[in-house]
Amino acid sequence: MFSGDRPIHIFRLTPALALRWSSLSIILFVVTAAAISTFYQVIHGYKRSWIFDAAVYSEQAWQIMLFLVYFVAIPLGTFLIHELIHGLAFIAFGGKPRSGIGIEHFLPYAYTTAPRRRFSRNAFLVISLTPLFIVNAIAILLLAVLPQAPWLGWIVILNTAGASGDIWIATLLLRCPRSVTVEDRKTGVAIYAPPDLDARSLPFRPSGKAKSTFQKWLDLTVLVLGLIVFVSFLLPILFDILNVPSFMVGTDSLQLLNWENSPKGFGISFNPWLWIAIATVLSLVGVLFISMGDR
């Protein structure tokens, strides 16, 4: 039996959860980038992926401004709009939203919350997922009709990757009965249940089981993808400093890596789907070796 005045579960942002959210963000970033890149190519007939095709031309000063827009204005604007829509959704269901930013367990985050106000499960699902669907739908629609604005794809990527916490909590709530209510807090949520609810219908039972082979493979895949994303931002700078001549690994249709260096500037591009496949295979091999070593 539960008391309706006390939460049955408080979902807090712990170090382990922060790591899982970061891992989910990496997966969402890479997969969404690959999907949006493919969408742009198919819709507008481009032969090369634009998402992972970055170039800098030293003779054109506006490229510096473009760099600032891509890496400063677009992320900030996306996250602000995301939280604004959260706030409007809270208001629509009777809440009084508060917004802010913070760092928890080395994980920076922006938040919009409505403290001391309980929402039904379905209402909170709408509040959690509305920014993800609205922002992505508008950006994808505009991207489909405006080929000259490929930066719209970055909005979809950042909005999706930044919604890892929303998606995680929504997945948890979908496993709960409709009768539960939810109170949003700054670093998590509190879940309440009516007194007559059967505890066996809730997904909060602790488990002391060791990680399965699938979980180990998934964790390793996320680690490899994270390294790929990190290195992809460093390679152009490193290649330019070392003055590496132009080269391509792969074919025109399957570019593992294409580096172009000329007196006018430099650029790098690669096929994200191919890198996802490589990360998956390498992780599978790694898990097999780990499993053999445990025997």
Structural summary, described in words:
The chain has 295 residues and is of the alpha+beta class. It has 2 domains: 1-205, no CATH class; 209-295, no CATH class. It has 7 helices and 10 strands. It has helices at 15-44, 62-92, 121-145, 152-161, 164-174, 213-242, 272-294, and strands at residues 9-12, 53-57, 98-104, 107-113, 118-120, 181-185, 188-192, 247-250, 255-262, 265-269. A 4-stranded antiparallel β-sheet has the order 1-7-6-5. Strands 2-10-9-8 form a 4-stranded antiparallel β-sheet. Strands 3-4 form a two-stranded antiparallel ribbon. Helix 3 (121-145) runs antiparallel to helix 4. The model has no long low-confidence stretch (mean pLDDT 79).
Write the layout of secondary structure elements.
Elements: E1 9-12, H1 15-44, E2 53-57, H2 62-92, E3 98-104, E4 107-113, E5 118-120, H3 121-145, H4 152-161, H5 164-174, E6 181-185, E7 188-192, H6 213-242, E8 247-250, E9 255-262, E10 265-269, H7 272-294
Antiparallel strand pairs: 1-7, 2-10, 3-4, 5-6, 6-7, 8-9, 9-10
